[in-house]
Design a protein that fits this description.
With about 130 residues, the chain is mostly helical. It has a domain at about 90-134. About 50% of the residues lie in helices and about 5% in strands. It has a two-stranded antiparallel sheet with strand order 1-2. A hairpin with a 4-residue loop joins strand 1 and strand 2 (about 130). It starts with 6 loop residues before the first helix and ends with a strand.
């Protein structure tokens, strides 16, 4: 692709997607908080999200910055090496236990947050967590 944009490159095109009503409501509220239209909000969030997946980016020299092969800065390889460098953990079962503990904490925290926001609820009768439908 050339450095100079052609007229075709700058024409706007429509993209249609369908999301659950609760998600659209959250996006609408967030867009309003940012003083953006819903279209502008979605376009901005998609572009921001894609930056984390653009493997053609050059790594930066900022400390703690992501590299193209590690966009989140916390890939599994890094976590394994850090765990092993701390010492004492070497077996398969110990690695699974150590590396999955963080996930369980994050899962619990996220479930609690979604329940507070009335996005999900726990129902023993229904056998677990369900999405709250309006």
């Amino acid at each position: 692709m050339s450095e100079t944009a052609t007229e075709d490159d700058t024409k706007r095109k429509t993209v249609v997607t369908y999301v659950p009503s609760h998600q659209k409501a959250r996006w609408k509220n967030h867009a309003e908080e940012l003083d953006m239209s819903q279209a502008e909000f979605v376009r901005t969030m998609v572009q921001a999200g894609r930056k984390g997946f653009d493997i053609s980016r050059e790594p930066t020299n900022l400390e703690g910055a992501s590299t193209p092969t590690d966009p989140g800065g916390n890939d599994l390889e890094t976590r394994i090496l850090e765990t092993l460098e701390k010492g004492g953990v070497s077996s398969w079962d110990e690695l699974i236990s150590t590396l999955s503990a963080n996930f369980e904490d994050r899962l619990e925290s996220t479930l609690e947050s979604l329940q507070r926001e009335n996005e999900i609820r726990y129902s023993g009768r229904e056998g677990g967590y369900t999405v709250v439908t309006e």
